[in-house]
Amino acid sequence: MEAGIGLPSTIPGVDPQAIMEWARRAEARGLAALGVIDRLVYPNYDPLIALAAAAAVTSRIKLVTAILIMPYRATAVMAKQIASVDRLSGGRVMLGVGLGGRAEDYEAAGAATAGRGRREGQQLEEIRRIWAGEKRGHAGDIGPEPSQKGGPVILVGGASDAAIQRAAKHADGWIAGGGGLEAFKAGSAKVKAAWQEAGRASPPKFAALAYFGLGQEAIDATASFLRHYYAIAGPYAEKLVESALTSPEAIKQALTAYEQAGCQQLLLFTGSTNPDQVDRLAEAVAA
Question: Rounded to whole angstroms, what are the CA distances from 123 to 18, 126, 166, 235?
Fold first, then answer.
């Protein structure tokens, strides 16, 4: 089981230097990955640019989009950006993708929500072709070639049957949202069945998100962030607040339970911008 931490790049008002310190400290403390989440109509940093900044101050830690919303982005531009971060980081990118749940993000980007699942499947096929060096014009391919042969590992997010079928057809695995262990178990079972039905030779890779806060300041900050970020989701936001891991023991138990359920990477996000959360999480993981 790999334990990672979310960058605070989605938290409104975060100091850019805090993001850099967060990344440095996470690597120094032995955490396996840095994660980012994605919205357009929100005062957050762009997830790929945030990962590029983190890549510049680290050398080992994995860089994970959890998730990147694909269908409102231009496919070729996005493919180039992802390949660039992978190349610049020495092959540390893991690409989690999904549809998002907010119509305003699509409206602001000038993209339609209708047919977005179908578009995501088409985009995944096109990205693979671009990374493989498909020629696009007189100058040749789009480039740069990703450091990872064939491009970064791709995990599709989403609990719907259609999302799981896209994962089985186009991706290397599945990434669960912050809905908790039981939701992960239910979704991963469906993914395994879809993988078998699709005749996939290699087993699916699994990752998931959870939320945490260690210490009263971080607990309060995480609750406030979740209520704000997921306000559109109504009662679901309060369920996320209630499910946040607020002690080292709860974090350790969650890591064990997710690992036993077949999860290979758990990314833990907090609403605090204090880098001491990196140290506290690392200590909990190592205990």
Answer: 34, 5, 11, 33
Residues with Cβ < 8 Å from 171, sequence gap 6 or more?
Answer: 97, 124, 154, 155, 156
CA 87 – CA 82 distance, rounded (Å): 9
Q: Which of 17, 11, 34 is nearest to 281 (CA)?
A: 34
Confidence (pLDDT) at 35: 98
- What residues does each domain of the chain span? 2-286
Question: pTM for this structure?
Answer: 0.97
Q: What is the DSSP string of 53-103?
A: HHHHT-SSSEEEEEEEE-TTS-HHHHHHHHHHHHHHTTS-EEEEEE--S-H
Q: Domain 2-286 has what CATH class?
A: alpha beta
Strand partners for 2 = 265
The two most distant CA atoms of the chain are separated, in Å, by 59
Which residue from 252, 207, 245 is spatially nearest to 226, judged by alpha carbons? 245
Average pLDDT over residues 14-31: 97
> In 3D, which of 184, 155, 197, 187 has the Cα closest to residue 172?
155
| CA 138 to chain CA mean position, Å | 35
